[in-house]
Specification:
The protein is of the alpha/beta class and about 260 residues long. It has eleven helices and five strands; from the N terminus they run αβαβαβαβαβαααααα.
Length: about 260
């Protein structure tokens, strides 16, 4: 589906400078994007050896983030003259892993993209990417595993329940003391998906809630679509501001838990 979408843009000469591709199976999307690049743009030789192509990801499994140095290298690459194809292509794998400095550097690229360049940002957690980056990209959303998309980890629901003991809630909040962004991304993305599920449940009775999800929904003072939409927007704003301004994760977690009590 992603490859077909990009091909449609390419065939009418409307391929954009930057795409944010939000999916639930990043490696499948990676192969689709690489196939598109090989078939339509950088057609000569192996993609990985093409001097007009750059691939960016975390340097190794021990690295928590994509560093600002990596994005600066990407910036230098994009501003150099093409060697073979007349175009420069770059792909950022798990773009949500950029630290705040790397994200700001990436934003500068998107604000003034060099001519004849195309940048593809792949992520399974678009909500954790700076809103200013998201707003400058053409967005592609695709769910390879639609059923799994609605399975919310109970680990992230329990701290939100009034019935959960305080000691358990504190233990969960403590997980953010080390500024573990991976856990924050999982937590915040799960909350957005959960609130969206609640909104769909009110509109469509065929949506099934687990017992723990139903318990959480009953905590709200209303289950009207308008109220749930308001809750979704409030919590999403808190998540976006935490990501954009690199706010304290523990404090944000506490505020979000409180939002689910009302």
């Amino acid at each position: 589906m992603i490859k077909k979408y990009l091909e449609e843009h390419y065939n009418i000469n409307r391929l954009h400078n930057s795409y944010l591709i939000n999916i639930d199976a990043i490696d499948l999307a990676l192969e689709e994007v690489k196939d598109f690049i090989k078939d339509k743009i950088l057609t000569k030789g192996e993609l990985e050896r093409n001097p007009d192509y750059m691939y960016v990801q975390k340097t190794d499994s021990t690295s928590k983030n994509i560093s600002v140095e990596q994005i600066r290298q990407l910036q230098n690459f994009l501003y150099k003259t093409s060697v073979i194809s007349g175009q420069k292509i770059a792909l950022i794998y798990a773009a949500d892993k950029m630290n705040i400095n790397a994200a700001n550097c990436c934003l500068k690229i998107l604000e003034e993209p060099p001519a004849n360049t195309h940048l593809f940002l792949l992520t399974e957690n678009a909500a954790s990417i700076l809103p200013t980056i998201r707003s400058r990209c053409v967005k592609i959303n695709h769910h390879y595993n639609q059923i799994e998309k609605f399975a919310i980890d109970e680990r992230f629901i329990n701290p939100l329940l009034k019935s959960t003991p305080l000691v358990d809630k504190l233990a969960f909040i403590k997980e953010f003391a080390a500024k573990d962004r991976d856990v924050w991304i999982e937590f915040s993305s799960s909350l957005e998906a959960l609130l969206a599920k609640f909104c769909r449940k009110i509109i469509c009775s065929e949506i099934k809630l687990s017992s723990i999800e139903q318990e959480l929904l009953t905590q709200f003072k209303s289950d009207s679509p308008q109220y749930l939409q308001m809750k979704y927007e409030q919590i999403k704003l808190m998540i976006d501001e935490t990501n954009e301004f690199d706010l304290d994760l523990r404090a944000s977690c506490v505020l979000i838990i409180d939002k689910f009590r009302k």
